[in-house]
Each structure stands twice: as C-alpha cells, then as structure tokens.
Amino acid sequence: MLLRLHVTPKRCIGCRTCELACAFSHSVTLHPSKSRVFVHKCGDEVFIPMVCLQCDEAACVMACPVEALTRNEQTGAVEVNDEKCVRCMACVAACPFGNMHYDEVKVKVIKCDLCGGDPLCAKFCPTQTLEYKS
User: Which one of 3.30.70.20, 2.120.10.30, 2.60.40.10, 2.60.120.200 gives the CATH number of domain 1-51+115-134?
Assistant: First the structure.
C-alpha cells in the first residue's frame, strides 16, 4: 500500500520547520529557499504549506514532451529524470498548484520527491500538519 503526504492546513502554526527539513535534505545549506515545500501566510494567523501532492493524473507528467517525469512505484513520488529533462519547463507551467520549480543555480527542474519514501517535512512537523500515511 502506497503512502501519501497528507496536508491539514488548519494545524499549521507557521513555524516553517518543514521548509528547513526539506532544505537540509536537498541541499548542503540550511536555507529555506532550497526547500521544495513552502509555507504561505494568508492573513494574520493562517498558514498553508504548499507541497507537491503527487497527483494521480499529474499535469506535469502529461506536459513533459520527453517523458522525463515518471512515478516511482515504490514511493509514489513523481520524479524528474535529469538525464532526460530538456529544461523546457512545460511541467513548471502545467502544475496547477505551482509546486514545480526551476533551480537556476543547479540548472534543473526540482519538485518534491518524498525524500525517497521518508519525507523529512512530515517527520519534523511539530503539529502533524504534514503526515506521510495511507
């Protein structure tokens, strides 16, 4: 049974621990700009973590002209094959949630890969806003 990353926005306190955990997982620097999850502030005390939902019929996958985006059958994550990717950014434009990004420093498209099946954003979320479960 595949696990999924579940988001419960009403639990989010805006601590941004998820951003730091993700940045640490994917970069040598602990800088939130390297994160693949972003917490948006909406009003005074409303925070919404935005992360790839690994859509069943993912628009990013359908938009890719070279089939560089495929689902990892073990984790359920849609992953970018950097060898195939031509950096046309059709996937970035196609994502209706804005969860595909282009890293200008690494010169590649990035998105949540569920940390290989053990997402640190969920592991370190103090309020269980992000949970990796069935």
Answer: 3.30.70.20
Domain limits, the chain: 1-51+115-134, 54-111
Q: Which two tokens stand for residue 109?
A: 């498209």
Query: Distance (Å, rounded) from C-alpha 88 to C-alpha 94?
Result: 11
β-pair partners for 79: 70
Give the model's confidence band at 97: pLDDT under 50 very low, under 70 low, under 90 confident, else very high: very high
The CA distance from 74 to 12, in Å, is 28
The model's pTM is 0.92
- 58 by Cβ neighbours in 10 Å (0-12 / 13-18 / 19+) ranks as buried
129, two tokens = 């806003």
Residue type, 81: N
Q: How many CB atoms lie within 10 A of CB 62?
A: 12
Q: What is the pLDDT, as a whole number, of residue 33?
A: 81
HSE-up of residue 83 (Cα within 13 Å, Cβ side): 1
